[in-house]
Amino acid sequence: MEKHFLYVSSPDGAQEEGHSGTGILVFDIEAGHKFVRRIEVPMFKEGIRGFTANAKKHCAYYSTTNAGLGCIDLDTERILWEQHLPLGCDRTCITPDGTKLYVPTGWWYAGQDGGFMVVDPQNGHVVKRLQVGKMAHNAVASLDGQFAYLGTETTLTMFRTGDDSIVRQIQPVGESGVFPFTVDSRNRFAFVCLGLHVGFDVVDLQTGAVPHRVFAGSGPIAHRTHGAALTPDETELWISDQDGKRLFVFDATQMPPKPKGEIPLSMVGHGWISFSLDGRFAWTHTPDVIDAHTKHVVATLADEHGKPVASSKFIEVIFDGGKVTRVGCEFGVGRAVQ
């Protein structure tokens, strides 16, 4: 029988709100997101920067503010390896087959030799460096295993995972600074958050063009956007206005996506959005659990002491017979072709 859990990492290295000790807090999704247990991970005290998982390896991989990188076995909850890398590590991604872990050098690293470190997920050893530019921050691996995407300053780079070659670089995109983004399941479009306003750029991944810039609200909102997610069926795109304590929802069945409404949030924070694999729930950088259909808050994440918990680094983990069978992604990537 399948069991669905939300794994939330704490403390988030990018926001003060919602911290709850050190480690992974596990919530039972089917039991109203009830707190189940805490998995202590001492390295988390450095502040979590990225949290990703792989079903084939039955492992989760974490990166920290102090350039820490580690791996935990989700079946046994044993830490398999940890190390510190010389430049740093930001939000990582891993290919679906579990063979390559792509580690950005970090938004704080201003060297032009910044980019990806390709890491062996078995032991954490750096296999090679892929240099593309400064402020390498967010990374997404496509669900078909063909591509890895990296955001550096106002550039989105698309790599072919087979040989780590650059397919294309799209610039300028995202308006200013580094940015979260999401991609659809067919590698047709990326939706890139704006750095000076609430909104997003639409990137055509087949051509490298940026045909649309979409602003949220009735007029330009002078907050950065930090969080973009497609519903698994790719019918909606949600973006975060963390300063405004709200989410904006867009109809993604048309191009460019059209506004559908907004959802209030309980607090400010780093900004983030992702969805459960079945599309029922949306999770954010707040303790709010949102019903993705009704757009209403249906639960509040709270720790073993009843204190609300928040983080922008979380993943869904599904078990069957005590073994990991499926995992979500901290980025809200489209899943329509799965």
Write the layout of secondary structure elements.
Layout: E1 2-10, E2 23-28, E3 34-39, E4 48-54, E5 59-64, E6 68-73, E7 79-84, E8 93-94, E9 101-104, E10 115-119, E11 126-131, E12 136-141, E13 147-152, E14 155-160, E15 165-170, E16 181-183, E17 189-193, E18 199-204, E19 212-215, E20 228-230, E21 236-241, E22 246-251, E23 258-264, E24 273-275, E25 281-284, E26 288-291, E27 297-300, E28 314-320, E29 323-327
Short description:
The chain has 338 residues and is mainly β. The protein has strands at residues 2-10, 23-28, 34-39, 48-54, 59-64, 68-73, 79-84, 93-94, 101-104, 115-119, 126-131, 136-141, 147-152, 155-160, 165-170, 181-183, 189-193, 199-204, 212-215, 228-230, 236-241, 246-251, 258-264, 273-275, 281-284, 288-291, 297-300, 314-320, 323-327.
Question: What does it look like?
Answer:
- Helices cover 0% and strands 46% of the residues.
- The chain is an all-beta fold.
- It has a single domain (2-327), classed as YVTN repeat-like/Quinoprotein amine dehydrogenase (Methylamine Dehydrogenase, Chain H, 7 Propeller).
- Strands 3-2-1-28-29 form a 5-stranded antiparallel beta sheet, with no helix packed on it. Strands 4-5-6-7 form a 4-stranded antiparallel beta sheet, with no helix packed on it. A 4-stranded antiparallel beta sheet has the order 8-9-10-11, with no helix packed on it.
- The radius of gyration is 18 Å and the shape is globular.
